[in-house]
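Please predict the structure of the following assembly.
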Amino acid sequence: MVKSNDLILRTMTVLIAFILFGFSVYLFLAGHNAPGGGFIGGLMTSAAILLMYMAYGYEAVNKVLPINYRSLISIGLLVAVLTGVGSFVFGQPFLSQTFDYFYLPILGKTELATALLFDVGVYLTVIGVTLTIILSISEDR
Amino acid sequence: MNDVLNIVTIICILVITISITLLLYRVVKGPTNPDRAVALDAIGINLMAAAGLVAILLPTTRLNDVILLIGILLFIGTIALAKYLEKGVIIDRDHD
């Protein structure tokens, strides 16, 4: 197979993948009060990883991001279930949630909700499912 | 003042609709596949403009994420189409 010279695509990928990761983290954290959330944040992260796969090829990205996306699915589901089970510790029904205000160093007064932990589970599961589907389809033998 | 803004926005939406229609003609009729890819890319850009104009029309800021999102997905989709047309594979593997 002839080695291709994708200089423009690879240089743009270095820049754009960072913007995509930043935008996905923004969407993930904005999901409480604005459009966004775990699902679309996970889709954006997998879009960034997919862009890196398209620009650099399978083996190079696997060396940079040695993540088994199938195990990411089970980790995400485990996080989501554990946030539901965690409400039993406080004598509450399954999947009940709470929030409180904290003073963080830079952000000041911030509302931290336990729904964010459930969203982390959704985020990891969406990344795992999307990239598992795409990478197993692209396996051409 | 608000009426002028509404009228101008509606006129812009109509112009973008005409533009998307002409691009759809190119998608259907286009002799080669790269023609269709470029036309679909331009349709996506027009959709970004339409989302921005709709955000002006119903005064809201909730659509700003959608505009950025369409741009990103359009970029990735166009790169995937271009790689397919150029090489026949979208994700390279060097296992031979």
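Chain A is about 65% helix and 10% strand. Chain A touches chain B at residues 1, 4, 9, 16, 20, 23, 27, 30, 34-36, 40, 44, 47, 50-51, 53-55, 57-59, 134-135, 138-140 (CB under 8 Å).
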